[in-house]
Amino acid sequence: MNFDLDENQELFKAAVERFCQGQDVAARRAARALPGGIDRARWQELAELGLIGLAAGEEDGGMGGSHGDLAVVAQALGHAQAVEPWLECGFLPARLLAGSAHLESVISGEKIAAFAFAEPGRRFVLEASGVKAKGGKLSGTKQFVLGGGAADLFVVTAEEDGKTALHVVDAKAPEVEVRPYPVADGGVAAIVTFHNAAAEGPLAADLHAVIDEARLMAAAEMVGLAQRLFADTLEYIKTREQFGQPIGRFQVLQHRMVDAYARVESVQSAVLRALLQPGAPMAAIKAHVAENAIWVAHQAVQLHGGMGMSDELGVGHGLKRIVLLSKLFGDPASDILDYARAA
Questions:
Q1: Antiparallel, parallel or unpaired: β 153-160 and 113-116
Q2: Boundaries of CATH 1.20.140.10 in the chain?
Q3: Which end of the chain, C or N, has fewer beta carbons within 10 A?
């Protein structure tokens, strides 16, 4: 079976690599220090490359990228340790806003949208309970709204007539209270309270289908991160000397790197399986990728020694991003439980 990228996928990967070139830890810190934690000029550039429009259908003015195309982009962004939240504020809104008039401004990068689903005391639960929709108005609180500090629009799950529906709310409306806070990977999330805020909806998107797609994209990004951390660590142990020789010559470290390599190949195979097998259990695949990517990241930090714990080195940032993605829409334990319920 041929696993090579096709011509278009090679172009998407190259576009991501050019976009991320020169983005070191200092650039990451500078972006995180901006209002909302997102550099809007770079976000506009990301959109102009078509990397947001790739997730939208052609009927909505997008490029109609396949799951394979999108996974290539997610994995390349992970490998480059991109600071831009493409998954949270690009892919997800493009999918959730399908058929909406707001999608055009999101695809163009003119506006940033964030998905608000999590509620206090309802960890990982997609069905809304605390936010109610009535008469075109929303009331209630959402938490862990990734990208919420920079958002112009919120795509919100709300209970309406006993069911969960998706609505769009203007983030700048006076009835919307946004309280930003930093999260593990350095990004800015928000607690958002709606005080009888005007909302448009319901949207037509299939929430659970989109979340399964997002799990696949999170898994692909974690694969890219794991590959990058493995490569950086391999280079480090070849050059770091102790007792008069590179530490990579010590057999115990060679064994750990072999184990890490096997796990990196395992997670890549899991994502390929998901792409090649329609109906593959995305929750279980994401759980497998998350557990192994975290293990690889821990090895990278440990083998870099004290520097691995510092904010000046990229491996720590990679670990933090993997931890956040591993808990997006469910941690490994809850993902496995979801899979068991569906089996």
A1: parallel
A2: 207-342
A3: N
Burial 135-155 (b: 16+ CB within 10 A, else e): eebbbbbbbbbbbbbbbbbbb
Task: Say whether domain 207-342 belongs to CATH 3.30.160.40.
Answer: no
Beta bridge pairs of residue 185? none
Give pLDDT tens digits for 64-75: 999 999 999 999
| Six token digits for residue 74 | 């997610």
Residue with tokens 């142990």: 237
**Is the pTM higher than 0.90?**
yes
Superfamily of domain 7-107: Acyl-CoA dehydrogenase/oxidase, N-terminal domain (1.10.540.10)
DSSP state of 127: S
Paired with 158 in beta bridges are 165
Domain 113-198 in this protein, CATH class? mainly beta
